[in-house]
Structure formats: C-alpha cells, structure tokens
Amino acid sequence: MGIDGIGRCGYPPLLAHLAFRADADQADAEQYAVCSAYIEPGLAGESHDLGSRTGLVVIDENSVFSNRFVQKSTLNQFRFLLGNAGHIKTAIPSLRRSALFELFFANLRDERLERRLHLSTRYELATEQETNVYPSEQFMRRFPQNYGYLTFSRVAFNRDLTEAFFYTEHVCGLCGEGRFVFVKKVNGFWIVDRIDSTWIS
C-alpha cells in the first residue's frame, strides 16, 4: 500500500510517506537515467529544444527545485510547489499526491549533479557563478555552441522506481520554459508521460 492509501492504514501522512520512500542509493543512480531520457529526444536544435547533437548541452550542476527567478529559500520553494499543485494535478491526472510530497523532501537540500548522464552529444556542467552571467560573452566563450542551459531538481521516485517526477527549466536568453515532468519506466526504459509548463517565453 502506498502513501495514497494512508488514510486506511492509520499512519500520519509524513511518517507514512517516509516509510514508503524509494531506496536512496538506487534513486540517486536512477535520477541520471531519468534526466538523460528527458534530454535526449529534445536534441533537435530548435529554439525551444534542449540543444543540438552538433552543439553543446549546458546543465546547471546545482539542483534547482523551483523557478530560478524565485528566491532560493526552502519556504519559497515550498510555496512554489504548493501554488502549482492544483494545476499540476489537472495537467498530470495520473500523478499521485505522494509524488508532490517526495519532490519536496528530495529537494530539502541542494545537491550537485555528477557527470553521469548518457547523451548522444557533448555536455558540460556549469557552476552557479557561470550560469549567473548568462548570456554574457564570458558564458559564450566558456560554453561555445550552447543553447542556453538547463536546470534540474532532484528527481522524486515512487517506491519501486517505476515513476519519476521532477522540475526543470531551459533558460535560453529571449526564450525559455519551466516544466514539471512526469515519466514512467516502460520495458526498462524511462519515457516522458506528461509535462506541465509553469512558464514560457
């Protein structure tokens, strides 16, 4: 029984959620497969895509849980998630309430990504100092042939690691988009199931 059935088993919601979380080590390894599966189909080189197989994909090395232009405090991040919860559930009806809980708990502390993505193109991890100066000449020299940069939250998983949920942004100068993404594992592969855009320009 998952967290969505906690009313019947009598556990307080927080304790029940913690009891039914995925194994932390397995989830840590799996998040790179999830992010790779999200990036790879978007490497078409169009303005709102994630890059090009002939260019460079730049990814913020720091996990980002909410809109990058919102102050990065845990309280404001929680407000951002709470404020979007109704819209997310409408856009992604198969998303369980537990995924929203897990997204918050998985991102209580910032973490750095490692170079463990599997992509068919070159990619670089950028520091916060480097992304803060985008789209300056300095950024363009450091990351030639880029399509802006991507940010990712830590990925939230269900207990058996067959569903995942995360927040991502593509910042590309005059264009960009923030998205909540729900993916499922189908025959051993992660497939994007639904996307809910929070902002687009």
Overview of the structural elements:
The protein has 201 residues and is of the alpha+beta class. Helices cover 33% and strands 25% of the residues. The chain has one domain (12-200). It is built from 7 helices and 7 strands, in the order H-H-H-E-H-H-E-H-H-E-E-E-E-E. The strands form 2 sheets. Strands 3, 4, 5, 6 and 7 form a 5-stranded antiparallel β-sheet that branches. Strands 1-2 form a two-stranded parallel ribbon. The longest helix is centred in the middle third of the chain and has 18 residues, at 74-91. The chain is globular. The model is unreliable at 1-12 (pLDDT under 50).
Write the layout of secondary structure elements.
Layout: H1 6-9, H2 13-19, H3 24-39, E1 56-60, H4 74-91, H5 97-106, E2 122-126, H6 128-132, H7 137-142, E3 149-152, E4 156-157, E5 163-172, E6 175-186, E7 189-200
Parallel strand pairs: 1-2
Antiparallel strand pairs: 3-5, 4-5, 5-6, 6-7
